[in-house]
Specification:
54 residues; mainly alpha; 3 helices
Amino acid sequence: MKTIIEKLVPWGPVFFGGLIFSQMWSAALGISLPITMAIGLAWGFIAMKRGRWL
């Protein structure tokens, strides 16, 4: 269990961007969910690689 968590934690920004941000953007902006999901995943991946969101 510990090794699974250790492997998933660094991917947290990707999960957050894809699952949380995409839902908020879809609801707030009225854009379709697949488009906001792609944007959220991309932004999360960039945040993971850079180590920060901004």
